[in-house]
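In response to a reviewer's request, we include the raw inputs and outputs for one of the modeled complexes. The two entities were modeled together in a single run.
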Amino acid sequence: MKVFTTPTSLDRVLEPSPDMKESVMAVEKIVGYNFKNKKLLEEALTHPSFTGSASYQRLEVLGDSALNHAVTNYFFCMADYQKFTQGQITKLRSANAGNLNLARVAVRHGLYRYLRRNAPDLDDQVREFTEAVINGEEMVESEEAKVLADIVESVAAAIYIELNFDLDKLWMKFKPLLDPIFTLENLHDHPKTELNEFCQKNGKDYEIKLRPRHETRNVSIADVYVDGEFIASGSSNKKKGARVYAAKEAVNKLCQSVVVDDGSFQEEVA
Amino acid sequence: MKVFTTPTSLDRVLEPSPDMKESVMAVEKIVGYNFKNKKLLEEALTHPSFTGSASYQRLEVLGDSALNHAVTNYFFCMADYQKFTQGQITKLRSANAGNLNLARVAVRHGLYRYLRRNAPDLDDQVREFTEAVINGEEMVESEEAKVLADIVESVAAAIYIELNFDLDKLWMKFKPLLDPIFTLENLHDHPKTELNEFCQKNGKDYEIKLRPRHETRNVSIADVYVDGEFIASGSSNKKKGARVYAAKEAVNKLCQSVVVDDGSFQEEVA
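The model returned the following structure tokens for the whole complex.
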């Protein structure tokens, strides 16, 4: 018996507002689902900066929860249950249903252009984020990543409501948009986690130091030191980004080097 | 079509270990569900401190996600969808599926005694927590609350797996254990949130100050000042608890008082 079913108020044939007709049709095509209540998808495509119409904020709560749970189910059902530790499942869930990945999904499917909004600053931020994704750069959590993820979650929630809260059906419809799913085999850790794990394994201390802003002008530069020795640096217009890029560069260098007897690092000679 | 189904490795008739037979039977009775694979419930009832057998840690991840999502669905389906704001849904979810409430559920149904464990310190903490719940005291997040919530989540996950990952069926089986469900009508905010909201509404500043520990011996005492005026204090063996109790006491007093013209508080005369 179904206890979670589409509320009567939403289970209706409704057309979108004239200004959203094209966007709704375009997104229906992207997700491969034809809505009965097109107002629901319109709501999923409305940013809070657009006044006078319900925004995606409510749907986002439902979509976030549905995608998180679907991904959790996926790893419990698809894989040999005993294979994963608690930490690994948590990591896989965050890699697949976390904001950063969902933001990448939004970029891959070009969803932002269909978002009804009134937020010129956000447009600039999303443009930068999109370029970074296309260039395969390491991403960091940010306001624009959150908005991009929110769109994916809200659209998922709208489909989930139309599918009568059937999570299996939502997953069948939505997984192709998320593909490729990160698995333990292709999951790379966050650079700072990797750096931390590398140093712990080799009994080393590391430090990521930000250079004083007045020395670096309008950019943040971070340097990685391992046991006091400079290893690599990274730069970004955000402090967090600089730290992440520095860590990534450091991990790359450390993986190509070997620890020699005196404890210092040396480049490996092929 | 079901895509999330019980993994073959778990879909078996299995008896519990001899030492867990009674506990498994007792918990089956509490939750009103007779397990096919009793090893699954045994795993849900095994704390990580008990070595030599799989602990509930993996199940807890699944149960946490399932209960969170079920509660989210519940508020989307049962209520008039437009009635809730994003903040209210988030608050209701945390009030019902958050660790503190699930810990209360564990206490109400006496689940801790069936947990296979090797953790004498935890036993003491749980005893204190249980007394506090029985006395209707305001609770704060703690290690023991987390363990108690973990048991509820793990047992929920074990049932969910046996029910072939059917969230509707899990909710029908599990909701009676969670009842009464907090709704907007009976939901009291956390005392610190209430104090904050009260002060914002009345244009007042508040401060919660901890007294120096050397003055108060082995107990933490916190005092609440509103616009510099002492309102109430609270004590606990934990700093966090002292702050919460002080805030609660302050809210009680403030609600019984009226703001008089000069901006100070005065006790209301009936």
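As requested, we also summarize the result in words. The domain at 18-178 of chain B is CATH 1.10.1520.10 (Ribonuclease iii, N-terminal Endonuclease Domain; Chain A). Chain B has eleven helices and five strands.
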